[in-house]
Write a structure and sequence with these properties.
There is one protein chain. This protein is mostly helical and about 550 residues long. Among the domains are: about 1-115, Serine Threonine Protein Phosphatase 5, Tetratricopeptide repeat (Alpha Horseshoe); about 480-545, Arc Repressor Mutant, subunit A (Orthogonal Bundle). It is built from 30 helices and no strands. The protein has helices at about 5-15, 20-35, 40-50, 55-70, 75-90, 95-110, 115-130, 135-150, 155-170, 175-190, 200-215, 215-225, 230-235, 240-255, 255-270, 275-290, 295-300, 315-320, 325-340, 345-355, 360-375, 380-390, 395-415, 415-430, 435-455, 455-470, 485-495, 500-510, 510-525, 530-545. α14 packs antiparallel against α15 and α28 (about 500-510) crosses α29. The longest helix has 18 residues, at about 95-110. The protein is globular and about 80 Å long. About 50% of the residues are buried.
């Protein structure tokens, strides 16, 4: 290699070690201007991935692979194939391409006798088995990768294998053993053991995915906090699209909505060219956030073209419920629950929503099943208790309150403020007949929780409950015109002109039922009692323009 290239590549490597990705990029690009060597292509590809430019990163890594094969340099070619396997899987959700690159890496390693790299191939096989919902095979391959790592003294591989095995154990239901391995892997990764910062990314990603799967939001938050120093030096370790989406789900669940929105926006940007499944996951979670904020139309638009995907069932069903179509929501939820066919956090969330749409006879039995088999997952247990509490509201108020109280305690332990507030509102409904003062106190606490989060739709429901129970001034939040959607602003303006619902429907080319929904939403959001107050508000708003 020419001296000038050696200098440029050395400077690029030093920049990588310092987390100075832009300088590293400049040095690799300068090297490529001098000569298109595979090392510079590989290095630049890796740097672009850290900068969030996934598609160009993949293209450069593929060119680097071709260059190493032509040289030939089987070790570097196999390593490039391993990188491509992981990138196609976790950043683009393209499992066919991921398996193809795994096959190439495996063949090169076997034909060239590259025993140390066989551990990385085993690690990729473990990840592939996880994608194929075969956690037992994933655990076996991860264990094999760990054994090879110890024999070859590859510390990065050992940490990655530990985290992959831990994730597999969580999926298999052995949560305690799984998170213990994940904790160990994260401690080593953040403790300065890895030679490659990519190791922190992979271990962090597995930890976030496992914690999300197990509903262990506290543990995820603690490790994210522990990674602050790494983040300051290198940037966020949640660079895979899958991890960013799950990380955003944790932030959403724990009330950090602004951060959740930032992560989801980045997941959508990075995964713009990803397979539909990954893109749909991010869109669905953002739609859930928008729905919780009371931005129904935006939630619907986000899922336009993705409503038929399994990843969006919960969000689509929630939108159908908000639109007053419970039968449609129930059909979607019931079909997805039958597809899942097992005890999982997704099943618990879907069942929790199904009881809102249709408290069918088998909802209670499904909730009991979750309670029996979800013992290691607090999130499953809390949702199952709430589901059962909802079912019992009309038949056994005392038992319903007991279930809801246990659900509330579970959500409190998990640090899930939205679910805590929703559960308190249900407790209020259960107590309204026998203990109205306690019910009002619970509803007020729920309203305060909703307003602190900015959960517009739920705050409206809490306010309506309080008004129905004789509490006149129920909303403490601001009566801002900015809380209304564009369509609601149009409806308010026409209310100011004194138009009736049928006339508004004609003017906006909407159904009368849709207009009724918008009028009710305007009243709730602005804490107005009737159409007369809305008309006066609209007139004042126009005068202030």
């Amino acid at each position: 290699m020419e001296p000038v290239l050696e200098v440029l590549l050395g400077e690029a490597q030093s920049a990588i070690e310092a987390g100075d990705w832009r300088t590293a990029r400049a040095r690799f690009e300068a090297a490529l201007e001098h000569d298109e060597i595979a090392e510079a292509l590989f290095g630049l590809g890796n740097v672009l991935w850290w900068l969030g430019e996934t598609e160009p990163s993949v293209r450069l890594l593929e060119r680097a692979y071709a260059g190493f094969r032509q040289r030939p340099d089987p070790e570097q070619a196999a390593l490039a194939a391993v990188y491509l396997c992981l990138l196609y899987r976790a950043s683009l959700g393209n499992f066919a391409a991921s398996r193809g690159w795994l096959a190439r890496a495996s063949r090169i390693v076997e034909e060239s006798g590259l025993e140390p790299l066989s551990g990385w191939v085993a690690l990729c096989r473990a990840a592939t088995a996880s994608d194929e919902d075969d956690p037992r095979a994933a655990e076996r391959w991860a264990s094999e990768a760990g054994e090879i790592a110890r024999t070859s003294h590859d510390g990065d591989l050992e940490l990655c294998a530990l985290s992959e095995r831990g994730f597999a154990l969580v999926v298999m239901g052995d949560v305690d053993a799984g998170v213990a391995l994940l904790d160990e892997a994260m401690a080593g990764a953040l403790g300065g053991e890895p030679e490659n910062p990519d190791t922190v990314v992979l271990t962090s990603c597995n930890t976030i995915l496992a914690c999300s799967r197990a509903g262990d939001f506290t543990r995820a938050g603690q490790w994210i906090q522990a990674a602050d120093e790494f983040n300051r030096r290198y940037g966020s370790p949640h660079l895979y699209t899958t991890c960013r989406t799950q990380y955003a789900s944790i932030l959403f669940a724990t009330g950090k909505w602004e951060q959740a929105e930032t992560e989801l926006a980045e997941a959508l940007r990075i995964g713009a060219r990803a397979e539909p499944a990954l893109h749909a996951q991010a869109l669905a979670k953002l739609a859930e956030l928008r729905l919780a904020q009371g931005r129904l139309e935006e939630a619907e638009r986000l899922l336009d073209g993705f409503a038929e995907r399994p990843e969006t069932v919960y969000a689509v069903a929630a939108i159908e419920l908000a639109r007053g179509r419970p039968a449609v929501a129930a059909a979607l939820l019931d079909r997805r629950l039958r597809e899942l066919g097992d005890v999982s956090l997704e099943a618990a969330a879907l069942l929790d929503l199904l009881v809102e749409a249709d408290s069918a006879a088998d909802v209670a039995s499904r909730a009991e099943l979750l309670l029996q088999h979800g013992a290691q997952c607090d999130a499953i247990l809390a949702r199952a208790e709430r589901t059962l509490g909802r079912v019992l509201l009309s038949t056994d108020g005392g038992r319903a309150v007991s279930c809801l109280e246990r659900a509330l305690a579970g959500f409190r332990r998990l640090g899930m403020p939205l679910e805590m507030a929703r559960t308190r509102l249900l407790i209020a409904a259960a107590l309204a007949g026998d203990s109205p003062e306690v019910a009002i106190a619970e509803a007020r606490a729920a309203l305060a929780g909703f307003e602190e989060l900015g959960a517009g739709r739920d705050a409206d429901a809490a306010a309506a409950f309080l008004r129905a129970n004789g509490v006149k001034s129920s909303r403490s939040g601001p009566k801002r015109i900015g809380v209304l959607t564009k369509r609601e602003l149009e409806v308010l303006d026409l209310l100011g002109e004194g138009l009736s619902n049928p006339r508004i429907a004609e003017r906006l080319f909407l159904s009368r039922k849709t207009v009724e929904h918008h009028v009710a939403s305007v009243l709730f959001k602005l804490d107005l009692t009737n159409r007369g107050e809305a008309t006066a508000y609209a007139v004042r708003h126009r005068a202030g323009k």
